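Second opinion, please. Pick holes in both lines of this record:
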Amino acid sequence: MCHFIVKLSHCKTKGVLNISIIKRSIIRIRASLRLIILLCIALFIIIGILAFFYKTAYIVTYNGEFIGYCESKSKLQEKINTYIENGNSDNQNIAYVQIDSMPKYELTFLKRNIQTNDNNIYNAVTSTGVTYYNYFAIQLNGEDKYFVSKYYEAEDIINKLKEKDSNNIDNIKIAERYNTELASFTSIDDCVNGLYEKKVVKKPTYSTTSSKATYVSSLGISFVEPAQGIITSRFGIRKRDNHKGIDVANSIGTPIRASAAGTVTYAQYNNGGYGYLVIISHGNGIQTYYAHNSKLYVSKGQTVSQGQVIAAMGSTGISTGSHCHWEIRVNGIAQNPQKYIYKGR
């Protein structure tokens, strides 16, 4: 009986101790909550003071130099991108505006009495741009004779000369032009009248072959154009990226040729965006790239000759249409392809 009473007394004491521990824990939690609340209040007060005296803005530098503060990075960059794509003019022949580098932005807190100067920054960046115009030349025997604004106008001229059975129709070609100055355009009828040549001999036989221009480069080797077609994108900074080559568009299956003799160092699908890619080494650190192909006709380690068909044009990888993306690299650094091929186009 005594043993039972002692045990009961021990349980009551233990229960009192447990309640005491719980109370102390609750007190500590309340104290911690009060401290957290006080810290939150202090933080809100600090934020409020900062918001009263300061505002968020961006420090803008261009080519390493400070050019001002802007209020909205996204709006300013979107405005610059629109200028690169369309220029400031409503001229329909503007192809793009070349700006060598983009401004850099750094988030900061700016005193409210300091004004942002988005327009001045925009003017400073766009003033360095070079406007390129796109139009088409009508060539006779490789010489530019007339210029028109749109490709369909050039096609109309060719078709009308074919209808008139002009004697020189085989020597009349269309060439795309990108220049910093806009040419003087000639009407379709004046072009036809100026180019038409009456036949004095029997109807000629039309050739289905086309010659390939050969360019002797400063690198010590000659290049031929890898594909026939229209240039749709050039080397340099674009709205979405820094383009490391030149794009020549034509239909899927158009032959892609080796621009110069060399050894194939890569011939397979590339997951980096090139799709089916061929890389040819020409020695002395010179390489040429042929990307977005639909088929490959060569393999790694194979020796190829200049003008040899190495692939078929396609639209594999990151691509918006059938074309040949051609790069030339010297010691791993991409060069402007139009220093070596497709000159004047």
